[in-house]
Amino acid sequence: MALPLLSYGPKSQNQRVSGYETGSDEQPRVFTTENVLDSGDIDGLIWAAYRQIYSEHQILKSNRQKALESQLKLGQITVRDFIRGLAISDPFLRRNYQTNSNYRFVEMCVQRILGRDVYSEREKIAWSIVVVNKGPQGFIDELLSSEEYLGSFGYDTVPYQRRRVLPQRNVGDTPFNLKTPRYNEYHRSQLGFPQSIWQTSVRRFVPQDKQPKAGDPSNYLTMARSMPVPANFPSRVPLANLNIEATVPYRRR
């Protein structure tokens, strides 16, 4: 028996406020198959989908899903199906699901698929339970089948960050691909970065199991190097000047 989705309350975010501003360059461009006129438009729509789901640093030639692109161009699948194919593809799951916690994966998917930030930690917990019970693919299907996604983007529109810039603010909301790096704070600290680089020395990360323990000789290396070197070195005597018979002890019977 599947567990029901944990209830969580919405939050007054930008995308939940009705907009009265006039269109401008600050508004996000909407890519939809409803206004596709030529092959250039469909290529732009595909690029927008890659940029939304994979983010800028993951758009590589090796990550392209050419079979999905062909199906979309031929009209065999909808934009929603194309988004689903990108979100459950091996490159996306390998670089985002396998390298992060469930909470982090939930946050990234809500931003990229629903086009908004998570409401609270309770929403992260609620969706992480879905990830545990149904796996990442089942979680993606739940997001794409939600009323919020269908009401905002439907079957023909590429998701985008809703209401990213507000005219009454000096600085708008930061884009998701800039404020959501691949690793969160916990994993960045485990990997040992960011590290401050100084002019005279470089701080390097040393794993805990390789750090010297108490009593390790390497801890005394600095002390040994700081010890003064004797100035008077012992004199060397040529072998020709040595009297071997006089120096070697003689045992009498």
- Helix/strand structural class: mainly alpha
User: N-to-C terminal Cα separation, in Å?
Assistant: 101 Å
Low-confidence parts lasting 5 or more residues at pLDDT below 50? none
Mean pLDDT: 78
Largest sheet properties: none
The H/E string reads HHHHHHHHHHH
Report the count of strand segments: 0
Shape: elongated
- Percent of sequence in beta strands: under 5%
Q: Helix proportion of residues, in percent? A: 40-55%
Counted by DSSP, the helix tally is 11
Radius of gyration: 32 Å
List the helices and strands and how they pair.
Layout: H1 39-53, H2 66-73, H3 79-87, H4 90-97, H5 102-114, H6 121-144, H7 147-152, H8 176-179, H9 185-191, H10 221-226, H11 244-247
Helix pairs in contact: 5-6
Structure, described:
The protein contains 11 helices and no strands. The chain is mainly alpha-helical and 253 residues long. The longest helix is centred in the middle third of the chain and has 24 residues, at 121-144. It is elongated. The relative contact order is 0.12.
What is this structure, in a nutshell?
The protein is 41% helix and 0% strand. It has eleven helices and no strands.
What keywords describe this structure?
253 residues; single chain; mainly alpha
